[in-house]
Write a structure and sequence with these properties.
Layout: H1 3-14, H2 19-36, H3 45-58, H4 63-80, H5 105-114, H6 118-130, H7 134-138, E1 145-146, E2 151-157, E3 161-166, H8 169-182, H9 199-213, H10 222-234, H11 239-246, H12 251-260, H13 273-280
Helix pairs in contact: 2-4, 5-9, 5-13, 6-8, 6-9, 6-10, 10-12, 11-12
Length: 282
């Protein structure tokens, strides 16, 4: 490992970046070195500008990919090499603003009902019932459930932040039934070896259940998180509270749901989304 690479890894660790960010940022600097055929610490602003023009024009990378590379390289030059600024003379492509195909309550209920595996069905139910990311539901431990206060603790979610999410009475009872069935000791959703399940298995379970349910909207398991947000807003939950429950760093991220759901009203909302699913299928 080169000294520069080690310095960058140390800097990212000091900033609390996730392993995925480590990998992406290191890949960005490695790709820059490959393109210029020079060590990154010998480059100048003009070299960086030429590189990003290459990404946009010649390689036609998606806007999100270009921005990820830009953030990684900018971090390297500011935090590792100590450049005072990284002001590149290149216009990064704008992110296309697309409204996702949102899941209705009926579609969510049909997907959950179509999932035959009780463990995966419970995981999908938690994804929707608490608005969790895939990585967050996989990382849940039994001790994260506070039944007395009806709260679920999300430990070190995206951005290395902990948060508490309310557990509705319906979801809490479902989790108690799940515990009585599987008796997990540590990880809430563990495989035979006692370790957390892989994301691939849950993603496949969602895709299969979606197909079995006849739901044709585009999108993967993250659609359950989108559904949680939009259904809570439709029930009157305030944007500020939804931001805290979703673990968004910026209110602007949460406000996207308001744009996707123009009829949303401000208020207390209804946190027991699962009870509404059952009522709709009663």
């Amino acid at each position: 490992m080169t000294p520069l690479r080690q310095q960058m890894i140390t800097a990212m660790q000091m900033h609390g970046f996730s392993p995925r960010t480590h990998e992406s940022y290191l890949d960005a600097v490695r790709d820059l070195a490959k393109f210029t055929r020079r060590s990154p610490d010998t480059l100048e602003h003009a070299d960086l500008t030429r590189y990003f023009e290459h990404l946009v024009v010649q390689r036609s990378l998606a806007p999100a990919s270009v921005r990820l590379m830009y953030n990684g390289i900018r971090f390297f030059y500011l935090r590792v090499l100590g450049w005072p600024t990284v002001d590149l003379e290149v216009t990064l492509p704008k992110r296309p603003q697309r409204i996702p195909e949102l899941l209705t309550r009926g579609a969510v209920a049909a997907i959950l009902a179509a999932c035959d595996n009780p463990r995966y069905r419970m995981m999908l139910t938690v994804c929707y019932g608490c608005g969790l990311r895939l990585s967050e539901v996989l990382a849940l431990r039994v001790q994260d459930i506070d039944g007395e206060r009806r709260l679920l603790r999300i430990t070190q979610g995206k951005g290395a932040k902990d948060r508490l999410v309310p557990l509705s009475p319906t979801l809490l009872e479902a989790l108690r039934d799940y515990w009585r069935l599987y008796r997990p000791a540590d990880w809430l959703f563990a495989g035979r070896a006692g370790t957390p399940l892989s994301p691939t298995g849950l993603q496949k379970a969602f895709t299969d259940a979606k197909r079995q349910a006849g739901v044709t909207t585009v999108g993967g398991i993250h659609g359950l998180r989108h559904a949680y947000a939009t259904h809570q807003l439709a029930g009157g939950l305030s944007v500020e509270r939804l931001q805290r429950l979703m673990g968004h760093r910026s209110i602007q991220t949460t406000l996207r749901y308001v744009h996707w759901l123009p009829s949303a009203s401000e208020g207390e909302g209804t946190l027991d989304l699962l009870a509404q699913l059952e009522a709709g299928h009663g």
